[in-house]
Amino acid sequence: MSNEAPDPDDNGIALEATGLEKLFPVRGLRGRAVHAVDGVDIRLDRGRVVALVGESGSGKSTIAKLLALLIPRTGGDLRLDGEPISGRGRRAFRAYSRRVQLIFQDPFASLNPVHTVRYTLTRSVRIHRGALRGAALESALELLLDRVQLRPASRYLEKFPHELSGGQRQRVAIARALAANPEVLLADEPVSMLDVSIRLGILNLLKDLRDDLNLAILYITHDIASARYFADRTSVMYAGRIVETGDSESVTQRPAHPYTRLLIDSAPDPDQLTKAARKARGEAPSLVTPPAGCRFNPRCQFATDLCRTENPPLLDVDTGRQAACWGYSDRQDRPVLDDTLVGGRVSS
Amino acid sequence: MSTVLPTPATVKTGEPVLQIRNLVVDYGYGDDPTHVLREVSLTLNKGEVLGLAGESGCGMSTLAYAASRLLPPPGIITGGEVLFTRRDGSVVDILKLSDKELRAARWNDIAIVFQGAMNSLNPVYRVSKQLTDVIATHRPALSRRELDDRAAELLELVGISPDRLRSFPHQLSGGMRQRVMIAMALALEPQVLIMDEPTTALDVVMQRQIVEQITDLRERLGFAVIFITHDVSLLIEVADRIAIMYAGEIVESATASEVYRMPRHPYSDGLLGSFPPLHGPRRELGGIPGSPPDLAKPIDGCPYADRCPFAFDRCRVENPALKQTVFADLEPERLVACHLHDLPLAKVPVQLTRRPA
């Protein structure tokens, strides 16, 4: 990624992971492991949203947990503001989690049902900012609820989670994350459990927070249309690897990787009812014994022997865009892509 | 005994297979039950895919379960009728069938693919056992051999290799389990298939496969489908007609493309604006602020009035009935429950008066 031209509105890297790897050992199968995340590079810039899109089981949530240090990684480096993070030790973890906060998918499960909103937020404020009391605490709580547009604060502070709607609960969960004044927000499917009508409200709120607080946000989702709406950059994951990355608009409008195109063609689109070539087939591979070479090769119509033997690195497709597909290499035995992909006309 | 009614003489477009009339469902037996369905009427024609869309808690699943009398307590049906047209042309009211008749009719006439269906297979029985059980119950005359052949045939129908019959559910992927459930629902060749969020738990690629399969099977076998989902954009693809539900009522009913291109109810418009488009211009969207009303409390006026950007005084006192739109002459079969359509055309918001191209 170092050869990438610096963005004009680049505010600096907040969190960067290189070669991130997580192998889960499989019980009963000695020496075998689930390759949940396999050599993933990811970079979160301040004031930017990066979307991570993929099917369930592709390793998206594992990446969120690795970045939040909730599970130890088995390989790769993590840097926050350029400092390497080891993730060992309780004190170091506390200091790290102050700066990198996580929002979970299910606001029904992530808030403790026996505590009021006041208690939940006070805990978070005290843990991360020291013993605030009285008026200082009160104004901190009000500011937090104001940030997530729950106004007036007095109406929500004494409520229990069951008294709130799903959208309000997710806002409280976001307020709890903001209590730490984080630099990075990891949002693991923050809207997929919510009703369709209020999803955009939450995404718009996160957008405002990105701008107001200059947050770096990782948005994990399976809905590529919402990634286009909300994220500045989009990375597509397949079977534990990133297969395509670039700005959201070009990734969704002119996909470069065959898998990205499959995802986009499979999404419901009322404007293109008659669109042919909708023969989506196959399923994601086993991650215990992943296919050799490119992991998408068993489902890919362009696959050649090269794809079945060697794993493609992320290759430059366009400015700021990369795809892990041999079709973009200059090798003699590369597969020939058709013109439905951006690579049909390979740009230098 | 069941009440066998004569087939209504006035059959308009298409032959109805299921007619729901003024269905009322309450939750709770006390003095002030929650009215979850309020006089809902809906007609499903033969071979048609009817989509039900809305937010959660608006009564879509309740409607489907009430129509098949599967509603669990404390739900009780307090009014209305559900007329089912049998293959021989006789019409029965499902709500008046005896338990025995109901048992014979279920799965045979109306089958359901439940929400989260892939988890409704019994984990301790093989797929073959679960498939043949269904058939054996309703067709006791069939031999073991015939049952097994039929089970294999069904699996093939939904695109699963018959050697999977010996599998246990945990050996199948989520998409395959979902397809086994669809195969099971089709085992007795029902006339009506109710699908409650059949693809919500699946990935988009698998969702696409299942939806293609349903469309394909419907064309081959000719059953009618009630398709319930939150995903309006998916519904526009699969459904012929769409009914939008809000707070236990149908607020708009039209063909799928009409709803998509020319929504007439502010709620339909808001629902469509909740899905960011994958193609076309990127624009700022807002969804619908607020949440559906609490049905346990009495609702004065239109239930959507509090969230509606166009609400005026009348909306807060009088609940609009489902009637023709402001373009009654041009689209007589379109129905909408909104007072705005009683106003002169110039006063109706432009979002709700898009005209056919």
Secondary structure: elements and pairs:
The complex is a heterodimer of chains A (348) and B (357).
Chain A: E1 13-25, E2 33-45, E3 49-53, H1 60-67, E4 75-80, E5 83-84, H2 90-99, E6 100-103, H3 107-110, H4 117-129, H5 134-147, H6 153-157, H7 166-178, E7 184-188, H8 196-213, E8 216-221, H9 224-230, E9 233-238, E10 241-247, H10 248-253, H11 258-266, H12 305-309, E11 315-318, E12 321-323
Parallel strand pairs in A: 3-8, 3-9, 6-7, 7-8
Antiparallel strand pairs in A: 1-2, 1-4, 4-5, 9-10, 10-12, 11-12
Helix pairs in contact in A: 4-5, 4-7
Chain B: E1 4-5, E2 16-27, E3 34-45, E4 49-53, H1 60-67, E5 75-85, E6 91-93, H2 99-105, E7 110-113, H3 127-138, H4 144-157, H5 174-185, E8 192-196, H6 204-221, E9 224-229, H7 232-238, E10 241-246, E11 249-255, H8 256-261, H9 266-272, E12 323-324, E13 335-336
Parallel strand pairs in B: 4-9, 4-10, 7-8, 8-9
Antiparallel strand pairs in B: 1-6, 2-3, 2-5, 5-6, 10-11, 11-13, 12-13
Helix pairs in contact in B: 3-4
Notable characteristics:
heterodimer, A: about 350 residues, alpha/beta, 8-stranded mixed beta sheet, 12 strands, globular, disordered N terminus, B: about 350 residues, Rossmann fold, 5-stranded antiparallel beta sheet, 13 strands
Question: Care to describe what's here?
Answer:
The complex is a heterodimer of chains A (348) and B (357). In chain A, helix 4 (117-129) runs parallel beside helix 7 (166-178). Chain A has an eight-stranded mixed sheet, with helices on both faces. A four-stranded antiparallel sheet of chain A has the order 2-1-4-5, with helices on one face. Chain A contains twelve helices and twelve strands. With 348 residues, chain A is of the alpha/beta class. Chain A has helices at 60-67, 90-99, 107-110, 117-129, 134-147, 153-157, 166-178, 196-213, 224-230, 248-253, 258-266, 305-309; strands spanning 13-25, 33-45, 49-53, 75-80, 83-84, 100-103, 184-188, 216-221, 233-238, 241-247, 315-318, 321-323. In chain A, strand 11 (315-318) and strand 12 (321-323) form a beta hairpin. Chain A has a domain at 261-267 and 282-348. Chain B is α/β, with parallel strands linked by helices. Chain B has two domains: 14-109 and 192-277, P-loop containing nucleotide triphosphate hydrolases (Rossmann fold, 3-Layer(aba) Sandwich), CATH 3.40.50; 117-189, no CATH class. Chain B is built from nine helices and 13 strands. Chain B has helices spanning 60-67, 99-105, 127-138, 144-157, 174-185, 204-221, 232-238, 256-261, 266-272; strands at 4-5, 16-27, 34-45, 49-53, 75-85, 91-93, 110-113, 192-196, 224-229, 241-246, 249-255, 323-324, 335-336. In chain B, the strands form two sheets. Chain B has an eight-stranded mixed sheet with strand order 7-8-9-4-10-11-13-12, sandwiched between helices. In chain B, strands 1-6-5-2-3 form a five-stranded antiparallel sheet, with helices on one face. Chain B is globular. The N and C termini of chain B lie far apart (52 Å). In chain B, 44% of the residues are buried. Mean pLDDT of chain B is 87; it is low at 1-12. Classes of the chains: A alpha/beta (348), B alpha/beta (357). The A-B interface holds A 55-56, 165, 167, 195-201, 204, 222-226, 228-230, 249, 252-253, 262-273, 278, 280-281, 283 and B 55-56, 173, 175, 203-209, 212, 230-234, 236-237, 257, 260, 270-271, 274-280, 282, 284-289, 291.
